[in-house]
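Most newcomers find our protein records easier to grasp once they have seen one. Sequence and backbone structure share a record, each on its own labelled line. Nothing more is needed to start thinking about how sequence determines fold. As an example, a complete record with its sequence and its structure tokens follows.
=====
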Amino acid sequence: MGIDLSKNGYADLREHIGHAVVCVCYGKPHEDPHNVALECETCGCVLVDFDHPEMADDNLQNYTESDRRDEKHHGLVNQEGTGA
């Protein structure tokens, strides 16, 4: 669901310099997260996401925005491409 880092990863990520980027997880409360993602909150784009290796066959479609866990870790990428 995220951007394809093997093709235009540099250009795709560069578009998010200066944006608020967060690391979030999706899944049911009190369970190991089904999915972990880096998301751009500025434009609402999933940059990179990974499913739990043992849950890869589970249907992520069963999860909704309400399953997005509150365990956010914020970061800001500045013009130099480093954390701010």
About this structure: The mean pLDDT is 76. Residues 5-76 form one domain. The CA atoms of residues 6 and 12 lie 11 Å apart.
